[in-house]
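F.,

This is the one I mentioned.
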């Protein structure tokens, strides 16, 4: 009888950057890994959790720059799974939210490989670390999470639908599309909607700027904020200020 493989592949989300935001399950997977294939946005401190004998292989993608093709990453996953028992594919944020994690799961399906998906905190949840809730009763009815850059390089057509909702809009990989994003809101007479750009959420070098959505391009240039960053659009961006002003007015009255 053919011996069943004991190989396990762990597709692990490392969160927005702060190592303390790792889940306990992710920590254990990294700690016991024999091989780690890691992305560009991984905080290198997280790699120190692994055993000193763990093989660490960089397979990152610099935004709009050099990158390891997904096909090569898939090949490396299979290569290491054929030779080791505990392989970790370590990704920033959450692997299944614009992280291509499911594509990598498809690579190992129908093979004698046990696959475990370990979610991570998505970078959009870093909005809360900047006093911006993604939802709030009476203000935002939901969240649209959109990609700013589809495979063909175009902006998601769903943005035109999201603009018309009362939900918060979060745009990943959209820094090269700020002009199109702003224009979409202006065309729907919503250019004055509050917006924020958050870079390096959860890390010491975290930066954020707030503005009206029509001013996204100008503000990003003035503050020299580029990619990687996420864009948050909606009334929740101004919520803290709105509530503070309301409280102050009640105190005066």
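My design for it:
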């Amino acid at each position: 009888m053919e011996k069943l493989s004991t190989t396990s592949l762990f597709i692990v989300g490392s969160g927005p950057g702060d190592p303390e935001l790792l889940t306990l399950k992710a920590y254990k997977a990294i700690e016991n890994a024999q091989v780690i294939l890691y992305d560009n946005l991984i905080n290198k401190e997280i790699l120190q959790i692994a055993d000193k004998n763990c093989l660490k292989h960089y397979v990152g993608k610099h935004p709009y720059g050099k990158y390891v093709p997904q096909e090569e990453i898939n090949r490396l996953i299979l290569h290491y799974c054929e030779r080791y028992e505990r392989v970790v594919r370590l990704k920033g944020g959450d692997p299944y939210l614009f992280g291509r994690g499911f594509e990598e799961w498809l690579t190992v399906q129908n093979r004698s490989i046990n696959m475990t998906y370990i979610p991570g905190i998505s970078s959009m949840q870093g909005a809360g670390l900047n006093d911006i809730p993604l939802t709030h009763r009476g203000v935002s009815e939901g969240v649209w999470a959109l990609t700013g850059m589809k495979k063909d390089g175009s902006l998601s057509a769903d943005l035109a639908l999201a603009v018309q909702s009362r939900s918060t809009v979060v745009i990943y990989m959209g820094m090269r599309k700020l002009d199109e994003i702003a224009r979409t809101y202006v065309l729907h007479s919503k250019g004055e909607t509050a917006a924020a750009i958050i870079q390096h959420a959860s890390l010491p070098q975290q930066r954020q700027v707030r503005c009206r959505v029509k001013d996204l391009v100008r503000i990003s240039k003035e503050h020299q904020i580029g990619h990687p960053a996420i864009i948050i659009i909606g009334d929740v961006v101004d919520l803290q200020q709105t509530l503070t002003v309301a409280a102050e007015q009640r105190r005066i009255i």
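The two ends are 83 Å apart (CA to CA).

Talk soon.
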